[in-house]
C-alpha cells in the first residue's frame, strides 16, 4: 500500500486559515493586532530568505511584523539595547532573533535578553524549563510543528514508540520533551539517538514513529525501518543538481523514494515540516498577544 503523504503545506494552510479568523476576531473584539519583531544580523542568504518567509506569512494572516536588519558588525551591546526596547514596546508581542548570529555576538546572552513573555521561539531557558516540566509556555516551533503535523494528519501519538534521530536544542531535545509529557497528543515512549548511539538501525527499526533531524542526506535508508512505520523528515539539505536553474535541490535526511515503500506515512522535503515551523511561530505570536492582554 502506498504511504500516506504527511502534507505540511496543506496542514499549515488549514492552521493559517484558522489563525486568520482568530486575528480578525482579536482586532474586532479587542482592538488587538498581534505584532512580531524579527531581528536579523548580517547577510546570511538562508537567514534572509527565512526572514522574508516569516514576514510574508505574518502579512497573510494579518499579524503586524517589523524587521530589524542590522549590519554584520553590529555590536552586541547595541543589539541587547534594541531587544530591551522591543521588550517595552506595546505593539510588539513576539521577538525573534534569527540564528545563527555572527561569531562576535554571544548567542546565550542575546536569548537571555528577550523578555520570556515575548520569546516566541521558545529558546529562553525559562521557557525551556517550563516546557520540560510540562507547564504552559511557548513551544519551539519546529518540534511543535512536527507534533501538529502528526496529529492533524490523523496519526495517534499516545502510547507509541517515537524514535528521534538528533538531539539538538532546537529540534531533537525539545521534541522528546513535548512528546513524553503525560498529556493528550503526547504521552509517547521516546528514544533519542545521536552520533554516540551504537547501532542506529537497531533503534530506528523499533520505531512506530521515526523523526529524523540529523542534517545529513540518507541518514535513514529503507533497511533501517520496519513495515508500517510513520516517518517525519525534519532535515533540509542542499544537494547539487545540474538540472535545476539554481544548481541544487533540497532533500531531507531520509531516502524518501525507498522508505516510502515500507512506511505507512511519510513527510516529504520540501513541503513537510518546513511550512509547519513558520505556522507555529504565527501561533506563538498570537498566543503572546493574548497572554499580554490577559486573554489567554
Ligand atoms: P544539528 O544541531 O546539527 O543536530 C543534528 C543532530 O543529529 C545531532 O544531535 C547529531 O548528533 C545527530 N546526528 C547527525 N548525524 C547523525 C548520524 N549519522 N546518526 C545519528 N545521529 C546523527 O541540527 P538541527 O539544527 O537539529 O537540524 C537538523 C536538520 O533539520 C538540519 O537539516 C536542519 O536544516 C533541519 N531543520 C529544519 C527545520 C525546518 O523547519 N524544516 C528547522 C530546524 C532544522 P550529535 O549530537 O552526537 O552530534
In short:
The protein is of the alpha/beta class and 296 residues long.
What brief labels describe this structure?
three-stranded parallel beta sheet, six-stranded parallel beta sheet, 2 domains, Rossmann fold, binds NADP nicotinamide-adenine-dinucleotide phosphate, single chain, alpha/beta, 296 residues
Helix content: 25-40%
How many domains?
Answer: 2
Binned strand content: 15-25%
Low-confidence stretches: none
Instruction: Name the CATH architecture of the largest domain.
Output: 3-Layer(aba) Sandwich
CATH top level of the largest domain is Alpha Beta
CATH homolog superfamily of the largest domain: NAD(P)-binding Rossmann-like Domain
What topology, given as strand order, has the largest sheet? 1-11-8-7-5-6
* Topology order in helix (H) and strand (E) letters: EHEHEHEHHHEHEHEEEEHEH
Principal-axis shape equals globular
Structural description of this entry:
There is one protein chain. With 296 residues, the protein is α/β, with parallel strands linked by helices. The protein folds into 2 domains: 33-115, Rossmann fold (3-Layer(aba) Sandwich), CATH 3.40.50.10860; 141-274, NAD(P)-binding Rossmann-like Domain (Rossmann fold, 3-Layer(aba) Sandwich), CATH 3.40.50. Helix content is 40%, strand content 16%. The chain contains 10 helices and 11 strands. The strands form 3 sheets. Strands 1-11-8-7-5-6 form a 6-stranded parallel beta sheet. A 3-stranded parallel beta sheet has the order 3-2-4, with helices on both faces. Strands 9-10 form a two-stranded antiparallel sheet. β5, α7 and β6 form a beta-alpha-beta unit. The longest helix is centred in the first third of the chain and has 23 residues, at 8-30. The radius of gyration is 19 Å and the shape is globular. It starts with a strand and ends with a helix. The mean pLDDT is 97. NADP nicotinamide-adenine-dinucleotide phosphate (NAP) is lined by residues 142, 165-168, 170-172, 193-197, 200, 213-216, 219, 234-237, 273-274, 277.
